[in-house]
Design brief:
heterodimer, A: alpha+beta, six-stranded antiparallel barrel, B: mainly alpha
């Protein structure tokens, strides 16, 4: 017994090191396999408020560009509105809407890591929930992963774990959008069958298979493509419309039908 | 004197976390170079202190960086590794000298200080990027990141350490 205690006392630093290492590896591996931790993320009160303060100071520097972006977007929406054939009801009945939009701002962005997360200044108070889609005026950004009262973290499309349904514009050939962690303006679209004709410059948009994003949200254009190892599917490099390094205003999209869709799918799967 | 050194370390801890999180994590030089200046905390930390407390403190430091940058516990893992290895690295760099009561970091030669800092940074970055990328098929990517980001961290840490030189404690 004496010897065991002596042993522990002698190697207490080593034991402490191993213990802390196991703790941190535990957290890390858990995130590799599935999601970011529920507890250690920047949507927490402390981190969120520090980022919010710093955002309050730096947000003035880009106002010019942000204004221009918003005016451009308004211009495009007006164009759509004025050229639409059927009339649009002037009052929207909010109980009938499938998609509702909340605006938010990015208070922390990252794009240099293999698993990037973005923090935004909207949280449960603004009825932002996990698994809502986040888009900007130019294209998609990511999916809400964790929320706190006032903040939420978003799994960026620049994240190795990200997997989003996407398709070629004006067709129904869909694949999934992934990222190989190399460059911040190029993502990969896989699982498009070889039979589909592709042209460099084709537009990629979100598909209708996910209950997170509405269909036809722009993602990017085809930069280059080649066949995968099995020679039956295309590997497509997509250059993004969004400049992921410089974004501020985002829209959080919530789908009212999502719960119903998920419930139905689970029911169907459990019947198999 | 003791309370003074505690005070300095607490301030240093908080300032390094804030500087790392608010400035250097956003640098993105060439799109991916974010120097990790918070390693300076381990470089500056007094030598004659309880080692277990030092490892615990390093864990907290790493975890608080992780907390802000959504990197799980990768920073914590790599920081405790260099905290644990620091005595071995010091023995390698300064010889048996450093075990004497009179040894001070400020008295060591420039080359020794440089080697000590460089070793801390390289070991830290090796552990960090291996865990971050977590696949040996990307060995080239790991090496590229370790080399380029170590160089950037080293340059910035040297600048910082000459700016705020260690006082003769």
């Amino acid at each position: 017994m004496q010897q065991i205690i002596n042993f522990i006392l002698r190697y207490k630093n080593f034991i402490l090191y191993i213990f802390l290492m196991i703790v941190s590896l535990g957290f890390t591996i858990q995130s590799h396999s599935y999601h970011q931790s529920r507890f250690f993320n920047s949507s927490s009160w402390v981190a969120g408020n520090i980022y919010e303060t710093s955002f309050g100071i730096t947000s003035y520097f880009n106002l010019d560009k942000e204004n221009r972006d918003l005016v451009e977007e308004n211009e495009r929406l007006r164009l759509l509105l004025f050229n639409k054939k059927e009339s649009i009801p002037s009052e929207l009945d909010s109980t009938q809407l499938t998609y509702t939009i909340t605006s938010g701002q990015i208070i922390k962005n990252s794009y240099a890591l293999p698993r990037n997360y973005i923090t935004i200044n909207k949280g449960e108070k603004d009825s932002v929930k996990p698994d809502m889609g986040v888009i900007t005026s130019k294209g998609i950004l990511g999916i809400v992963e964790n929320t706190s009262n006032n903040f939420a973290t978003v799994q960026s499309i620049l994240n190795e774990n990200s997997n989003i349904n996407a398709k070629l514009k004006n067709t129904d050939n869909f694949g999934s959008l992934t990222w190989d962690a190399r460059t911040y303006n190029v993502v990969q679209l896989v699982d498009i069958p070889r039979l589909v004709p592709l042209v460099i410059g084709d537009t990629i948009v979100t598909g209708g298979m996910s209950s997170i994003f509405p269909e036809n949200i722009p993602i990017g254009t085809i930069k280059k493509f080649d066949l995968n190892d099995s020679k039956s599917f295309w590997n497509i490099e997509v250059s993004l419309f969004n400049d992921m390094t410089n974004i501020k205003n985002v829209y959080i999209v919530s789908n009212a039908d999502r719960e119903e869709i998920i419930e139905l799918q689970e029911e169907t799967e459990s019947n198999d | 004197m003791i309370s003074n050194s505690y005070f300095i370390n607490v301030i240093r801890f908080a300032l390094l976390v804030l500087v790392q999180v608010l400035v250097f994590n956003r640098l993105n030089f060439f799109g991916f170079i974010n120097p990790m200046v918070y390693i300076l905390f381990l470089y500056w930390y007094p030598i004659k202190q309880n080692r277990a407390a030092f490892i615990g403190l390093s864990f907290l430091l790493g975890l608080s960086i992780d907390f802000f940058s959504d990197t799980m516990a990768i920073n914590a893992a790599s920081t405790i590794t260099i905290a644990y290895m620091r005595p071995a690295i010091m023995r390698f760099v300064f010889g048996v000298n450093y075990e004497f009561q009179s040894f001070k970091l400020g008295n060591a030669t420039r080359v020794q200080q440089f080697t000590f800092l460089a070793l801390l940074i390289v070991v830290h970055h090796m552990v960090f990027f291996t865990l971050e990328i977590f696949s040996f098929s990307n060995l080239i990517l790991i090496l590229k990141k370790v080399v380029s980001i170590s160089a950037a961290t080293l340059v910035l840490c040297l600048l910082f350490s000459s700016l705020f030189s260690v006082r003769k404690e």
